[in-house]
Amino acid sequence: MIVELGHFALVLAALVAIVQMIVPMVGASRQWSGWMAAAVPAATIQFLLVSASFAALTYAFVVSDFSLRLVVMNSHTAKPMLYKISGVWGNHEGSMLLWVLILALFGACAAWFGGNLKPSLKARVLAVQASVSVAFYAFILFTSNPFLRLATPPMNGEDLNPLLQDPGLAFHPPFLYLGYVGLSMAFSFAVAALIEGKVDAAWGRWVRPWTLAAWLFLTIGIGLGSWWAYYELGWGGFWFWDPVENASFMPWLLAAALLHSAIVVEKREALKSWTILLAIMAFGFSLIGTFLVRSGVITSVHAFANDPERGVFILLILAVFMGGALTLFAARANVMQAKGVFAMVSRESALVANNVLLAVSAFVVFVGTVWPLVAEIAFDRKLSVGAPFFNAAFTPFMVALTAILPIGAMLPWKRGNLGRAMQPLWGVLALSVAFGALVWVMQTGGAMLAPVGLALATWVTLGALVDFWSRTGRGDISSRLRRLRNLPGADWGKTTAHIGLAVTVFGISGLMAWESEDIRVAQIGERFEHAGYEIELRDVRDVQGPNYVSTTATMAVYRNGDEIALLHPEKRVYPVAGMPTSEAGIDSGFLRDVYLVIGDAQADGGYAVRTYIRPFANWIWAGCIIMGIGGVFSLTDRRYRVAAGARKRRAPVAGVPAE
């Protein structure tokens, strides 16, 4: 009964979304206040209904209701409760229900907290958001219904993909979807502004927190996915340029560009066309990622390889929304004339350079991701585009981006002087180059990746701190420290996020330059040396898990004769799914990870053992965490709340409708 109620609630949510799509849009075009006001209760009701539907599906997974086809295919009674719950979205149908739930959530948040929006713009934003929901409701109900029953329920289920039975992957998809779908709000604001015929500084202020929230969730989701790939797949890497990884990385790059571009719209009313285009394309790339993951056109360890018919439906959604938005963009070009002019040397120009580098790097990733598909369709050739291409094509843009960040932050708006902007940065530049040279000398030459990475990370970090300190003005230390505490949240957030980027850049460059690997067959009781560490394989035993059988090794790590860690790498086999996975044993440190993987038993009685020394691995995810904290700081900027409150307190003038 609960499952049927969930299905019914989903159908009702789709009907409410249709009302929300049509009524407020008509009301805004006719200036009927009652029709425009209908958007708020409609958004609230839609969210409550789809929440009830999602709760019903979750209940079916929790109680192992094997009369439901989706539960049979993605659950098992022996599975731990965490993975029963994560199984709700660990499949195509359930993940699409999560998608529409988050769509409804963002629409409801815009309805609840959009008191500072002009009523007609708010109505159009919620109507556009509902139109996206309607498309995905249709996709779910007609091609991907999660509530299908089985005539003859089995006694047990087929279990969830073992690779997804991990805490990192349990929380990775919801955060990614909050980012993907969060960009729909930027899209809705862009399309609503084009229909409204007005793109101004206020619009730039309104769109920034939504984009920032989406970027923040994408950062967390990508970081969790990278961390999972590092310790779960047993390959020791943090990023493999997998198509699914790229599908989340491209919107992240465009969201970062949109954040910086919206600042120019807000501060100077310039770059209006470019910012609107970025808002459209950022969500467009989220839809492209959805198509790549769910159409079956790519192969990935964490793709939903479904039938092509579903891919065609998503492609149709992409064509309708992107084609419609870009057509509207072309038709409304006259309303996006920039008011602010700026010189070649100015903060605006630096932000334009920032946008170009981020957008082109996203395009490079896109080309590398889809080119094998294009080559197979157009030229009947099977190609593989791997890490060498992406590293060679993508890295120069990131080097250029980090190089200009501190300079751009120090330049004034409208017109600047490069020499004056560099004046407080010369010492930072000298110190950064000195650090890079020192590392190059200490590693006795060799690859330049680590020295360049350290120099750029130092440059960005110290440059961000110099810019932050310069915002306290002049005076003695105590007065500047008092002003420091009162700086806006956006300033704290920008500085923190840039430092997080620097930490991640150095972590990546250090790991890639200095990592070492050893593969051998080790006997029980044997001790071997690698990169200054001694590893001893003490024991290997079979362990019965909740829903798997594990071959678990006990391995000791020694440094200078002293035992520093006792690790237990595993090789698991999930009998129901018939699939093996690796669980690495990792001794994590501030400067390095010792990473051990146990393999198959060999004919001579030994075991295949892989040993990796990963310098600065944790710095990669520490940088992601710091960037996320920067996003939280920026979201707490009181100027967003002050703007909302000011509009609410404004007294209406008799005879003049409130805006």
Automatic annotation (TrEMBL):
It is found in: Cell inner membrane. Its main location: membrane. InterPro entries: CcmF_C (IPR032523), Cyt_c_assembly (IPR002541), Cyt_c_biogenesis (IPR003567), Cyt_c_biogenesis_CcmF (IPR003568). It is a multi-pass membrane protein. Residues 89-295 form the Cytochrome c assembly protein domain. The chain crosses the membrane at residues 6-26, 38-62, 96-114, 126-148, 175-195, 207-229, 249-265, 277-305, 311-331, 352-374, 394-413, 425-442, 448-470, 619-640. Keywords: Cell inner membrane, Cell membrane, Cytochrome c-type biogenesis, Lyase, Membrane, Transmembrane, Transmembrane helix. Required for the biogenesis of c-type cytochromes. Possible subunit of a heme lyase. This is Heme lyase CcmF/NrfE family subunit. It comes from Tropicimonas aquimaris.
